[in-house]
Amino acid sequence: MRLAELSERSGVSTATIKYYLREGLLPAGRRISATQADYDDAHLRRLRLVRALIQIGRVPVATARQVLAYVDDDSLGQTIRLGAALWELPHEPEPDEEDPQTAVARAEVDRLLELLGWATARELGALSPNHRVLTATLVRLTHLGYPMDAEALLPYAQGLGRLAELDLDRLEDVPTPAEKVEAAVAAAVLFEPVLLCLRRLAQEEESARRFGLS
Amino acid sequence: MRLAELSERSGVSTATIKYYLREGLLPAGRRISATQADYDDAHLRRLRLVRALIQIGRVPVATARQVLAYVDDDSLGQTIRLGAALWELPHEPEPDEEDPQTAVARAEVDRLLELLGWATARELGALSPNHRVLTATLVRLTHLGYPMDAEALLPYAQGLGRLAELDLDRLEDVPTPAEKVEAAVAAAVLFEPVLLCLRRLAQEEESARRFGLS
Questions:
Q1: Complex-level ipTM
Q2: CA angle B90, B7, B71 (to 5 degrees)
Q3: What pTM was estimated for this model as a whole?
Q4: Could A56 and B140 be called an inter-chain contact, meaning their C-beta atoms sit closer than 8 Å?
Q5: What is the extent of the structural domain holding B23?
Q6: B31 within some domain
Q7: A76 φ, ψ (degrees, to nearest 5)
Q8: For residues B204 and A184, is the Cβ–Cβ distance under 8 A?
């Protein structure tokens, strides 16, 4: 398809597509004349991912470029490729090593992973940004007067573990490894707001069930 | 306790506490002289909640004031009081009624609630900001090329429904209705980042289980 059709089908303006091409976020089309190039479904899919990262994920352009480099690197194994792409997404807060509560919270995260039997997460430890953000968030909760220990977190982690199985099941239907990574990154960025809405709706429902509506 | 001790125990500077007092976010202490007032544990608890709303929840001061008004209004039933306080928190995006996909997404949300048998959520419908944000987010997902229907959302909603039971169980231990609402608001604002970290850790674990680490 031509640039105009790519714009039409993706809902992204031609000016923005040209910007993504210049920034290397979208591979060049197949040149068919001095002024025209041809784009295919892979371009359309990549364009949707770039838009998800930048518009919904609010990921900086340089970060998006790094995420896409991992998505495209087929020398990496599936878990690492997926992990590396997701790890490049913005993560905050980072733990404050000056704060004595950081060591306490980190020990609690490690104890949680042991209770869960999550061997990979234990092995990766603070290498994973998710481990670090969880540690830093628990420190914040402690300082705000709402401490949570491994036992309090355990049933939530178990429930989310079952949902992660669903996430990975959905990935099985995606044909190629590169598309799997693409879908996983899009899901991480796009699906979190859906989960938070569903959680709050579930809380309203459960509250009404226990206390009535009035 | 005096202002200095309230500051010490809450980790909030005396200047910030004075600002919260002026803004009506924290009730005045019991006056014990022309220049000194006495504060109690209720002040400390409220101060933690205000800090959670403003610092973690990034809630504007006027919104925080409105949330606290519901927290304190004991003429309201428990579900409404909790709901009203949570509903005052910032919610976005709102559905775009000009977009033909909005009606499609709203029908899908209603069909999901029917499949779930969530009677209160169905009754409240788009009155609940969570219903509206879910609708708007599904529209966004559709435009980005990742549509989700009621069947795809169902197992996630069911899983989060089980976690909402845990949330409400934890509230049972909180003594007074005002403190329950306070704890629920703090949990909504503070606990969401924890859940997102746990979800990503669970995904890494499940990915390693299926594809190995390399």
A1: 0.83
A2: 35
A3: 0.83
A4: yes
A5: 1-56
A6: yes
A7: -90, 145
A8: no
Contact check, Cβ <8 Å, B128/A201: yes
Report the length, in residues, of chain B.
Answer: 214
Number of domains in chain B: 1
Per CB-CB distance under 8 Å, the chain A contacts of B179 are: none
pLDDT by 10s per residue, chain A, length 214: 999 999 999 889 999 999 999 999 999 999 999 889 999 999 998 998 888 788 777 788 998 998 888 888 888 887 777 777 788 777 888 999 999 999 999 999 999 999 999 998 998 899 889 999 999 999 988 887 788 999 999 999 999 999 989 888 888 888 877 787 778 877 777 788 889 889 988 988 888 888 876 5
Nearest to B198 among A45, A156, A214 (CB): A156
**What CATH number is attached to the domain comprising B26?**
1.10.1660.10
On whether any CB of chain B is under 8 Å from the CB of A77, the answer is: yes
Domain contains B24: yes
- Distances in Å between the Cα of B118 and the Cα atoms of A80, A162, A201 are 39, 21, 9
The SS3 call for residue B91 is: coil
Q: Which residues does chain B have within 8 Å of residue A195's beta carbon, measured at their own beta carbons?
A: 156, 160, 195, 199
Whether B143 and chain A come into contact, CB under 8 Å, resolves to: yes
Residue B148 counted as domain residue: no
Asked if the C-beta of A130 comes within 8 angstroms of chain B's C-beta atoms, the answer is yes
